[in-house]
Design goal:
Elements: H1 12-22, H2 33-36, E1 41-45, E2 48-51, E3 56-59, H3 62-65, H4 74-86, H5 99-111, E4 116-122, H6 125-142, E5 150-154, H7 163-168, E6 185-188, H8 202-220, E7 225-230, H9 246-256, E8 260-264, H10 279-283, E9 289-292, E10 304-309, H11 310-316, H12 336-351, H13 354-370, E11 378-384, E12 387-392, H14 408-418, E13 421-422, E14 424-426, E15 429-432, H15 440-463
Parallel strand pairs: 3-13, 5-6, 5-7, 7-8, 8-9
Antiparallel strand pairs: 1-2, 2-3, 4-10, 9-10, 11-12, 12-15, 14-15
Helix pairs in contact: 4-12, 5-12, 6-11, 8-9, 13-15, 14-15
């Protein structure tokens, strides 16, 4: 069981009841929620969170890919409080700004690659991706190419939960019962090397996946395709690292047909792979647009950014007509307290060399997780640095999956939570995205508990006749 480390005075039952009766959760399983309710997570520090009873858990998922500098950073808390006292809020509509918004926009332009020098602020990754598409459509309208509207995304790619962002998301499970924007998005196959055809080399698989993009553009007609959106490493779709050269070559395809490239760095940005942005230093390409959120403020406040190239800005910033405005924006675009959090987050990361820490400890996390490959249900361990995934299978040779009723990812997560570690279940996967401050000792704790939890799950599956390994 998770060790009790603190004495709290929360009324857990009352909080549990209020939450169950009134709070609609993202990704809720209504089959069990009304009976099980929620774990009440009440406090946090470093890489750990505490429930309302005082039990401590090592957070193997960093909140949701986002608490990059760790929990309870006093310097961050003071910066947020100071900005809230000085200037809580002011609208940035029209020709008004605040010091944090101006400073953060300039800092992001400095960190971003190539000519990505112009920043539009929002409050979440979905908003950053919706903004990218709306502006790209506007960009082509201004060029007189009003048919260029189609978006190409990838099966199992994840881009958010607003209507447009979910339409671009290629995770079929997330679409159950919901509608999508009809006819706007074409999904091309997932470039997951682990699932490539038997006997095909990784190089040939890369050729095929790059061809998938070009073929989709040609089928839709280049005059109709506005953008290709891709995560450098797929996140919620299974932490899929594409074959070497994939992003550079798909960028070349986009250039060939005047299709803009959106790099969705909502997860990979701000240190998760050891760089503020991963597109250029890790994957050798410079996109037209970078979208980011999560680690931008380390989850301390809601903040996102859509970063545009000079080439796009030079078109959209030309007045349309006398009195016309660029009519896109949100009440909280450039919110001064959120932007102050973003600035302080970057300051902490640079001063404490958190990216350097990731480049040192990340390979250790990769190596230690790779030791789980000796367990019979572990089919693949993949990812990079502090963005990792364990794929569980019924048979490693055939890569066949366990039956749905095995709920293998969820079982492993439950066993881990009982042992004081939180990992994320996604169907047959377990995803790991810890705070970037995690130490090697904590990596050992995380991997040790995960091993115990997988072994316990194998015992469960055998006893229930769901697996005969």
């Amino acid at each position: 069981m998770a060790a009790t480390m603190r004495n709290f005075r929360y009324d857990t039952q009352e909080l549990w009841r209020k939450d169950r009766d009134h709070n609609i959760h993202p990704w809720t399983d209504f089959a069990t929620f009304k009976e099980e309710g929620s774990l009440v997570v009440a406090e946090s520090e470093g890489c750990y969170v505490y429930d309302s009873e005082g039990a401590r858990y090592l957070d193997g998922i960093g909140g949701l890919w986002c608490v990059n500098i760790g929990y309870g950073n006093e310097e961050m808390a003071l910066a947020i409080a100071e900005q809230a006292r000085r200037m809580t809020y002011y609208s940035t509509f029209g020709h008004i700004t605040t010091p944090p918004a101006a400073e953060l926009a300039a800092k992001l332009a400095e960190l971003a690659p190539g000519t990505l020098n112009h920043v539009f602020f929002g409050t979440g990754g979905s908003m950053s991706n919706d903004t990218a598409i709306r502006i790209i459509h506007f960009y082509f309208n201004r060029l007189g190419k009003k048919n260029k509207k189609k978006i190409i995304a990838r099966t199992d790619g994840y881009h958010g939960s607003t209507y447009l962002a979910m339409s671009m998301t290629g995770v079929a499970f997330d679409h159950q019962g919901f509608d999508l924007a009809p006819g706007l998005v074409r999904h091309i196959p997932n470039p997951n090397p682990y699932r490539r055809p038997e006997g095909m080399s990784v190089e040939a698989f890369c050729d095929e996946k790059v061809a998938d993009l070009e073929n989709a553009i040609l089928e839709l007609g280049p005059e109709n395709v506005a953008a290709f959106i891709a995560e450098p490493i797929m996140g919620a779709g299974g932490v899929v690292v594409p074959p070497p050269g994939y992003h550079r070559r798909t960028r070349e395809v986009c250039d060939r047909y005047e299709v803009l490239y959106i790099s969705d760095e909502v997860v990979t940005g701000f240190g998760r792979l050891g760089h503020f942005f991963a597109s250029e230093p890790v994957f050798d390409f410079v996109p037209d647009v970078i979208t980011c959120a999560k680690g931008l403020s380390s989850g301390y406040l809601p903040l996102s950014a859509t970063i545009l190239s000079d080439e796009i800005y030079d078109v959209i910033s030309v007045p349309q007509a006398e009195g016309a405005l660029f009519t896109h924006g949100f009440t909280y675009s450039g919110h001064p307290v959120c932007c102050a959090a973003g600035l302080k987050n970057i300051e902490i990361m640079e001063r404490d060399d958190i990216c350097g820490h990731v480049l040192e400890v990340g390979p250790y996390l990769e190596e230690q997780l790779a030791t789980l490959r000796d367990l019979p249900i572990v089919g693949d361990v993949r990812g990079k640095r502090f963005m990792m995934c364990v794929e569980n299978v019924a048979d490693r040779e055939t890569r066949a999956l366990l039956p749905d009723e095995a709920a293998v990812g969820a079982r492993i997560a439950v066993h881990a939570q009982k042992r004081g570690v939180i990992v994320r279940p996604i169907a047959h996967l377990n995803v790991l995205s810890p705070p970037l401050t995690m130490t090697k000792r904590q990596v050992d704790e995380l991997v040790g508990v995960l091993r115990e939890s997988i072994v316990a799950t194998m015992d469960d599956l055998r006893s229930e006749g769901l697996w005969s390994g």
